[in-house]
Amino acid sequence: MKSFFRPVDKKGILLWIIFALLGTFASKSFLNVPLFVSILLGLNSSVYLVMVIDKIQAVQSGRRLSERSLYFMTLFGSSLGMIASMYTLRHKSRKTSFQMVVWGIIILQSLILYSIYSSSLIL
Fold it and tell me: What are the tens digits of pLDDT across the range 11-25?
């Protein structure tokens, strides 16, 4: 619980935003998909890249991103990329508290999307 109160790493968030913008631009340019899909592809691929960097830092005992930063990235659209990176890279996959928060964010996002979608069906 101690890492939850650690401040968000501004450099990590900035790197994630830059990767997300590049990924969004690349997917929009080369895949010719709608903007919303390009944004999601950019966000999720960028969190995967950030997790690769964090995994490398973990192996080399370098400077790491705070879990709070990773939660922030997950909350703002990178849920699938976070799950994919956790299990393919085997990074943060043993830490139960981290997994519970990430899955909690995903459940919350799912409930919000469901409520938005179900209310639009009624209208």
Answer: 889 999 999 999 999
Backbone dihedral angles phi then psi of residue 61, each to the nearest 5 degrees: 55, 40
Structural domain including 48 reads: 2-122
Closest CA to 1 of 91, 100, 103: 100
Q: How many CB atoms lie within 10 A of CB 75?
A: 16
Residue type, 60: Q
> What is the token pair recorded at 25?
């631009």
Q: Total domain count for the chain?
A: 1
Asked whether the predicted pLDDT for residue 103 surpasses 90, the reply is yes
pLDDT above 70 coverage of the chain, percent:
90
